């Protein structure tokens, strides 16, 4: 027990740090499986964070905060969907614009909320299990959103691999022309996928402002939306691998914080760079073998489609 004690806080902190990455990356996995590339995750997370925080502050309910964050994320995603799916705008440029818009909008909406603390979402107490030595602290004391992130992963895995609707969506991502020819509503399916990704991105942002902090801070995502995008590639568009990657990057984030506490003679600025350095290194390693990427990447990822074309 004593030997494990120093490790337990690191493991539990890793789980908390990885949870918003899981929500954002799993949602983006679904979006990209439908053949759409949305680079606006960072902006949707920020808008979700401020909307969720404002709702939780007003109502006193974390649940209301997450619902509001999901709705805000969907609203942002609909802007992206309208421009790229209906108006046929370039997906990369539109996604980047959505991120910039989200950064500015969240700063404007949260101007009067900055620095105001709220009662965050607490861990749930599971009778008997939470009191178990080591395992109780390791597995059974997290907040409900941590457990829901695992349920989300399992549900998305089942949806993509076992359900008829998931197979249709994958068909749209592989060849929208063929999918349209056999009667699948390509644009409608892509709209639903983009909205799902917006909802999960909003919830990821709300997790930062309601659980991790809990407080609204301008720009509090600090690049986590970009890491979530990298995780989709890291996991080769497979939900289970994406989750493993999220825990890996969550661990890197936590270790840089603990390294500062241990008094290591490493500049804090260098330690803060570790998660992003790890992201670049992993992507470089993966991209050395193009077959690794092409194995699971949707063939029509990022390509526009119009039924009348």
Automatic annotation (TrEMBL):
<keyword id="KW-0762">Sugar transport</keyword>
<feature type="transmembrane region" description="Helical">
    <location>
        <begin position="244"/>
        <end position="264"/>
    </location>
</feature>
<feature type="transmembrane region" description="Helical">
    <location>
        <begin position="188"/>
        <end position="210"/>
    </location>
</feature>
<feature type="transmembrane region" description="Helical">
    <location>
        <begin position="63"/>
        <end position="85"/>
    </location>
</feature>
<keyword id="KW-1003">Cell membrane</keyword>
<protein>
    <submittedName>
        <fullName>Simple sugar transport system permease protein</fullName>
    </submittedName>
</protein>
<dbReference type="GO" id="GO:0022857">
    <property type="term" value="F:transmembrane transporter activity"/>
</dbReference>
<feature type="transmembrane region" description="Helical">
    <location>
        <begin position="139"/>
        <end position="160"/>
    </location>
</feature>
<feature type="transmembrane region" description="Helical">
    <location>
        <begin position="216"/>
        <end position="237"/>
    </location>
</feature>
<dbReference type="InterPro" id="IPR001851">
    <property type="entry name" value="ABC_transp_permease"/>
</dbReference>
<feature type="transmembrane region" description="Helical">
    <location>
        <begin position="6"/>
        <end position="24"/>
    </location>
</feature>
<feature type="transmembrane region" description="Helical">
    <location>
        <begin position="92"/>
        <end position="111"/>
    </location>
</feature>
<feature type="transmembrane region" description="Helical">
    <location>
        <begin position="270"/>
        <end position="287"/>
    </location>
</feature>
<feature type="transmembrane region" description="Helical">
    <location>
        <begin position="36"/>
        <end position="57"/>
    </location>
</feature>
<dbReference type="GO" id="GO:0005886">
    <property type="term" value="C:plasma membrane"/>
</dbReference>
<keyword id="KW-0813">Transport</keyword>
<dbReference type="Pfam" id="PF02653">
    <property type="entry name" value="BPD_transp_2"/>
</dbReference>
<keyword id="KW-0472">Membrane</keyword>
<keyword id="KW-1133">Transmembrane helix</keyword>
<keyword id="KW-0812">Transmembrane</keyword>
């Amino acid at each position: 027990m004593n030997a494990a004690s120093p490790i337990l806080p690191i493991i539990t902190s890793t789980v908390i740090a990885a949870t918003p990455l899981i929500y954002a990356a799993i949602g983006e996995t679904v979006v990209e499986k439908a053949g759409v590339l949305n680079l606006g995750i960072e902006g949707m997370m920020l808008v979700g964070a401020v909307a969720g925080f404002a709702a939780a502050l007003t109502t006193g309910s974390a649940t209301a905060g997450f619902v509001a964050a999901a709705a805000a994320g969907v609203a942002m995603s609909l802007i992206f969907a309208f421009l790229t799916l209906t108006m046929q705008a370039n997906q990369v440029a539109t996604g980047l614009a959505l991120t910039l818009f989200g950064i500015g909008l969240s700063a404007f909406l949260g101007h009067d909320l900055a620095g105001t603390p709220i009662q965050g979402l607490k861990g749930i107490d599971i009778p008997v299990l939470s009191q178990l030595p080591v395992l109780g602290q390791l597995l059974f004391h997290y907040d409900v959103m941590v457990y829901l992130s695992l349920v989300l992963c399992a549900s998305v895995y089942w949806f993509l691999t076992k359900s008829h609707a998931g197979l249709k969506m994958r068909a749209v991502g592989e060849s929208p022309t063929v999918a349209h020819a056999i009667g699948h509503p390509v644009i409608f399916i892509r709209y639903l996928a983009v909205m799902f990704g917006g909802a999960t991105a909003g919830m990821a942002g709300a997790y930062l402002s309601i659980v991790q902090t809990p407080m609204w801070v301008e720009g509090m995502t600090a690049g986590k939306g970009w890491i979530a995008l990298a995780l989709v590639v890291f996991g080769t568009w497979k939900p289970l691998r994406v989750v493993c990657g999220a825990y890996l990057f969550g661990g890197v984030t936590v270790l840089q914080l603990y390294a500062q506490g241990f008094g290591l003679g490493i500049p804090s600025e260098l330690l803060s760079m570790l998660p992003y350095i790890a992201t670049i290194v992993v992507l470089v390693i993966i991209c050395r073998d193009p077959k690794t990427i092409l194995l699971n990447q949707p063939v029509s990822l990022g390509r526009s489609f119009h039924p009348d074309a």
